[in-house]
Amino acid sequence: DGGITQSPKYLFRKEGQNVTLSCEQNLNHDAMYWYRQDPGQGLRLIYYSQIVNDFQKGDIAEGYSVSREKKESFPLTVTSAQKNPTAFYLCASRRGADTEAFFGQGTRLTVV
Amino acid sequence: KNEVEQSPQNLTAQEGEFITINCSYSVGISALHWLQQHPGGGIVSLFMLSSGKKKHGRLIATINIQEKHSSLHITASHPRDSAVYICAVLGSNFGNEKLTFGTGTRLTIIP
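Structure tokens for the assembled complex are given below, as produced in the milestone run.
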């Protein structure tokens, strides 16, 4: 079955450490997205990629980095520069503009 | 003011009731999504629509582009419908790839 897989579901890290969240899709979608969800707020866009080897900053990119070396994969690194990294992170993909978005199950990151 | 506003924020209803969740937006859009988020956090896309009405099972979504408003209806609601329902809009500006999300409506259906 096609879909988006995020791993791990729960992640704990010590303050000051970088951590990488995985997002893989087998839908052959060109566009992939990373969102952050905080209680009481709508999802906010961190980074997105419309094609392999290209990505753009979203609304809250500071303290995050991404890569898009393969069409199927769009990992997100939460760096030590991110001041408030504890959140729920969602990955999504779309075939292209004006097409339906598919979401992963999310990764809940807790930094202690 | 948020670009996407949902109402109500929380809704509790008895099993069997007809449910309506509203979404208003202030920007030009090319499409609107209704999404469902269960307690585990994963999100499922229910509808994507740019005009008129769509129906899937007990779910109906409508959109009025002129009034910048969409509604999600659930007929014969069931406890398994309990979830957070999120409206998201895709901007109509050329090259705008970003979805803008509402804060969600938390629906609880009591048996």
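The interface with chain B takes residues 31, 33, 35, 37, 40-45, 48, 50, 58-59, 88, 90, 92, 97-106, 108 of chain A (CB under 8 Å). Residues 46 and 60 of chain A are 5 Å apart (CA to CA). Further analysis is deferred to the final report.
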